[in-house]
Write a structure and sequence with these properties.
The chain is an all-alpha fold and about 350 residues long. It has one domain: Farnesyl Diphosphate Synthase, CATH 1.10.600. Helix content is about 70%, strand content about 0%. Strands 1-2 form a two-stranded antiparallel sheet. A hairpin with a 2-residue loop joins β1 and β2. α2 crosses α6, α7 packs antiparallel against α8 and α9 runs antiparallel to α10. The protein is globular.
């Protein structure tokens, strides 16, 4: 048998970290009451996800010499907090399905969704306080500002729905808060736990924010260019829902005359019929929007890598760089299929 390649070794390491996270999450709520509320939390935690944020936190902490056991509570805090935001995001957007499972407000009711998110936010704070050997104030000094930024980002995103003119710069500012803030916190928390120097923690935070930009623009791009089966949701969903993305906003800025009017109607009419998605894609391609988006992903990822150049030379740091290849953050889903598997559902006992 041939020894594993470096890529396979990195993939195995990421899968091992994710398994630690997956195994720990359900135990946070098992046996707690009231059952209906904690069942909703468990439902959210068992529907999977790539666990990108906690994996990044663990790799940064390991890069600076901290053990996974010591950093795990913070990683769980970040993942629980992330999922809390999704519960409320789904409620605000009226989405009835996420990761192939019904959302909390669809399976239960809106009130339960509000309480579920609130409870998960509280759990994340409790978990962060369980990190041993680290000044709790230093951890919360990272976490508190992140919460405010993320809420502001969500509010900005919602306000964009009613605005006809949104600039790409305003969109990037929203990404920095809604997506980048939590990724920045994940990187920085890993540095705090690993006792990195203050200057290194600043670089880690900036790297996380830049990864957030690359991650979101890549997501916008995949929504229009990915294969339906590989993407796992209908291609062009953002256009159908009338969402303002990097692609639609850059198309508006590049287009002129009738072309500009066509894209203006797209973002002001609240969505596009699905059978018009191909036309929108063709128009964007002619305007060069896709290549510009790919270049933005490459640029932000490379900038993030530059800010991580000072990481100690460790196996964990190598895996972290592997997750951020120059072409864009995180290898294609086919590279690490286990990153996308759902958590196993509990086996029901006898009736």
């Amino acid at each position: 048998m041939n020894p594993p390649t470096k890529s396979e070794s990195h993939a195995e390491r990421v899968v091992a970290l994710r398994t630690r996270i997956d195994d720990a999450l359900p135990s946070l709520v098992e046996g707690r009451t009231p059952a209906a509320l904690y069942e909703a939390v468990e439902h959210v935690l068992r529907t999977g996800g790539k666990r990108v944020r906690p994996v990044l936190l663990l790799l940064v902490a390991e890069s600076y010499g901290a053990s996974v056991d010591r950093a795990l509570p913070a990683a769980l805090a970040v993942e629980v907090f992330h999922n809390f935001t999704l519960v409320h995001d789904d409620l605000m957007d009226g989405d009835e399905e996420r990761r192939g499972a019904p959302t909390v407000h669809a399976k239960w009711d809106p009130g339960t969704a509000v309480l579920t998110g609130d409870l998960m936010m509280g759990l994340s704070y409790d978990l962060l306080g369980q990190v041993e050997g680290t000044d709790g104030e230093a951890l919360y000094a990272v976490f508190h500002p992140m919460v405010e930024k993320l809420c502001a980002g969500q509010a900005l995103d919602a306000s964009f729905e009613d605005e006809e003119a949104v600039s790409v710069d305003a969109y990037l500012d929203m990404i920095d808060r809604k997506t980048g803030a939590l990724l920045a916190a994940a990187f920085e928390l890993g540095g705090v736990i690993g006792e990195a120097a203050a200057s290194a923690q600043d670089r880690l935070s900036t790297a996380g924010r830049l990864v957030g930009r690359a991650f979101q623009i890549q997501d916008d791009l995949l929504d229009l260019t990915a294969d339906d089966d590989a993407w796992g949701r209908g291609v062009g969903g953002d256009l159908v829902q009338g969402k303002k993305t990097f692609l639609t906003l850059r198309a508006l800025e590049r287009a002129e005359g009738a072309e500009h009017d066509w894209f203006a109607r797209l973002v002001t009419d609240g969505g596009l019929p699905r059978n018009d998605v191909s036309e929108a894609r063709d128009r964007m391609a002619r305007l060069g929007v896709f290549e510009e988006a790919r270049e933005a992903v490459r640029s932000y990822t490379e900038q993030a890598r530059d800010h991580l150049a000072g990481l100690p030379e460790t196996a964990a740091a190598e895996t972290l760089h592997w997750l951020l290849p120059p072409g864009g953050p995180f290898p294609k889903s086919g590279t690490i299929p286990s990153l996308h598997r759902p958590l196993p559902q509990p086996v029901s006992g006898p009736a």
